[in-house]
Write a structure and sequence with these properties.
Helices cover 53% and strands 0% of the residues. By secondary structure, it is mostly helical. The protein has two domains: 36 residues, no CATH class; 73 residues, no CATH class. α1 packs across α2 and α4 runs parallel beside α5. InterPro entries: Rho-like_N (IPR011112), Rho_N_sf (IPR036269). This is Rho termination factor N-terminal domain-containing protein. It comes from Stutzerimonas marianensis.
């Protein structure tokens, strides 16, 4: 797909970009700049054109938790903490993402943090409460 080709975007994404572009043009932004801003906004909100893969079916809560966890790992790396140094987030090895944990593991984490109402929460609610 060459740069600028919009064929991989869904109809909904194209309509959204048109609407955003019109809005910018009404505010006096040039046509070219309005189009660029509109597509940048669509890309930011939806991740670009239609894509195949596991990330498309994740809930917003799960994506938020993954981003937060990634930011924590990056901060640890900048500080020089390696995963083998026993950081609290990395105990147990493997994946550290909340969305990859079982409900029982999330419940234990919520119990450790004394999250109120945890026993009645579903998995996605536990992820949100722990994020």
């Amino acid at each position: 797909m060459p740069r600028g080709d919009k064929s991989k975007y869904s109809d909904k994404q194209q309509r959204k970009a048109e609407h955003i572009e019109e809005s910018y043009e009404k505010r006096g932004v040039s046509e070219k700049e309005a189009e660029a801003r509109a597509w940048a906004t669509v890309n930011k909100q939806s991740g670009g054109g239609e894509r195949k893969g596991s990330g498309r079916n994740k809930s917003e809560t799960a994506k938020r938790a993954d981003r937060k966890d990634s930011a924590h790992r990056a901060a640890d790396a900048r500080k020089g903490d390696s995963p083998n140094k026993g950081s609290a987030r990395n105990k147990g090895g493997g994946s550290t993402s909340l969305s990859d944990m079982t409900r029982d593991e999330l419940m234990q984490k919520a119990r450790d943090r004394d999250v109120k109402g945890r026993s009645r929460m579903r998995k996605d609610e536990l992820i949100k409460a722990l994020s």
